[in-house]
Write a structure and sequence with these properties.
The strands form two sheets. Strands 1, 2, 3, 6, 7, 8, 9 and 10 form an eight-stranded antiparallel β-sheet that branches. Strands 4-5 form a two-stranded antiparallel sheet. The chain has one helix and ten strands; from the N terminus they run ββββββαββββ. The chain is mainly β. Strand 1 and strand 2 form a beta hairpin.
Length: 120
């Protein structure tokens, strides 16, 4: 059987994030909406959609929540263990950095920006 995605390495400006399992990326692009007329489906129209990366990181002595919340104009990469690499440029952090005092100091991160590219 062929290998399937099991884990991803996420980088922000070249720095590897210490992520927990379950990271996900929506590479963005054009989102299509179906146009339904009175008698038939007439087609679709497109609207732009941002790329979005969501992950949870753990916190160690070297982790700075202040640095994380200042992320903007960043280059992000989502490197799959199956070989695909998705890169987003000029991305920013959209959420606040909320720290949970368990599970390794979990902090959820949501980054968004222009659509990501597959770089394989």
């Amino acid at each position: 059987m062929a290998k399937k995605l099991g884990k991803a390495i996420i980088k922000v400006d070249g720095k590897v994030l210490q992520t927990l399992p379950g990271a996900k990326i929506d590479i963005g692009g054009s989102e299509r909406t179906t146009v339904v007329g009175a008698n038939e489906v007439q087609g679709f129209f497109e609207t732009p959609k941002q790329g979005k990366l969501e992950c949870d990181i753990t916190v160690g002595a070297e982790t700075s929540l202040d640095e994380l919340r200042k992320i903007e104009k960043a280059t992000i990469s989502f490197e799959c263990d199956t070989g695909q690499i998705y890169v987003g440029r000029d991305w920013w952090l959209t959420n606040t950095t909320e720290l949970t005092a368990s599970e390794g100091g979990k902090v959820p991160l949501v980054l968004e920006g222009p659509p990501a590219e597959e770089m394989r």
